[in-house]
Amino acid sequence: xxxxxxxxxxxxxxxxxxxxxxxxxxxxxxxxxxxxxxxxxxxxxxxxxxxxxxxxxxxxxxxxxxxxxxxxxxxxxxxxxxxxxxxxxxxxxxxxxxxxxxxxxxxxxxxxxxxxxxxxxxxxxxxxxxxxxxxxxxxxxxxxxxxxxxxxxxxxxxxxxxxxxxxxxxxxxxxxxxxxxxxxxxxxxxxxxxxxxxxxxxxxxxxxxxxxxxxxxxxxxxxxxxxxxxxxxxxxxxxxxxxxxxxxxxxxxxxxxxxxxxxxxxxxxxxxxxxxxxxxxxxxxxxxxxxxxxxxxxxxxxxxxxxxxxxxxxxxxxxxxxxxxxxxxxxxxx
Length: 334
Known about the structure:
By secondary structure, the protein is mainly beta. The protein has helices at 95-99, 196-199, 272-279; strands spanning 2-6, 9-13, 24-33, 39-50, 54-64, 67-76, 83-94, 124-136, 139-151, 154-164, 168-179, 182-193, 218-226, 230-240, 244-253, 258-267, 306-315, 317-319, 322-324, 327-333.
């Protein structure tokens, strides 16, 4: 709008008009379906603006079960490829409640994210996700930050990090794509911390019989490919207690009868503390009538629902006070 004065009269010229709709505010209450098919209450306070060129959505507050946060969504239609900017911030994020009890299905295999043609190539998007406190498999993860960009049908993760239990941290890099069965993630993971024992429940390796004093500080790096039907870890490098060196690769198959194939090499491992903790005061062989769910009673094999094929190489290890070298073994459980 241009305003000028001439002989005491005002001249108003409309040079350009732009109509922005008045803010629309509403409160949404509905049931939210979790990834296990359960429902939890979802409440959002939403404020939206729109015109022919853009759509702006402000989520002033959001409550989904035990999770609470807020966010913004900006959609720009003035560019050749429409662009979106998404910012989400959670004060508390309870992944256990949202994903449900099944540890194998979860997010990647959920059909919500399945697509025969992949993510749309007709949208460029930037995501900024933060969660102050996240709960996953009972563990608390702090200060989760995920920055991502979507273009050409893929989501790239240039920066994803969080603080782990046991004074640890993790960094993820990689890309996310989607197919007919769900989401694929291909990337690299680096992690370190002071207490590996506190990390074990998150990765499904919790066992109270493993001595906590041999699961102290750790540093790790590996490549990972996660698909709905399988998970592959390659070029694994893990250092425990600044001494024990672990390397190798792992393949886990989730469909049908679950299967695990692994080739692992371990160096500088003292087996005596592990053996003592698992055996307790029992001998290596336990009579069948005295077998509880004891690792050396092998009763747990009856309930094993996963096929395991393990190739294990041990070098510079200790067993029953004796030093060993260049040990190779193949273990198959079906």
